[in-house]
Amino acid sequence: MTYTYVAAPVLTTLAPTQGPTSGGNSLTLTGTHFSRATKVLVGTLPMGFVIVSDSHIVADAPAGAVGPVDVTVIGPGGTSAPQSYTRVSAPGI
Fold it and tell me: Is the residue at 4 inside a domain?
């Protein structure tokens, strides 16, 4: 039996770093070892995502409460260190 080491995803940047509580905006994640990503999470919620390349993922932010939340990428090699994404409320009138 052969064992193959698979590196954990490394999330280095997230853009934008904030968005509306209603969600729906696209997030661009950059890093390494994304080609085998199985999940992208914002907090504990999974996001829909597309792997563009081994270093680029585009994900759709889900709705949620105001405040910061961690974004992570999960693959067979493990889970990336988080990057912070902050949900902000719409301005009042």
Answer: no
Q: How many domains does the chain have?
A: 1
7-58: pLDDT as tens digits: 999 999 999 999 999 999 999 999 999 999 999 999 999 999 999 999 999 9
Distance CA 91, CA 93 (A): 7
pTM of the model: 0.91
Helix (H/G/I), strand (E/B), else coil: 36? coil
Read off the tokens for 32: 């390494």
Range of the domain at 47: 10-86
Q: Residue 91 has what DSSP assignment?
A: P
Three-state SS at 26: strand
Q: What is the pLDDT of residues 62-78, one digit of tens each?
A: 999 999 999 999 999 99
CATH number reported for the structural domain that contains residue 56 in this entry: 2.60.40.10
The answer to whether position 5 is within a domain reads: no
Within 10 Å of residue 26's Cβ, how many Cβ atoms?
14
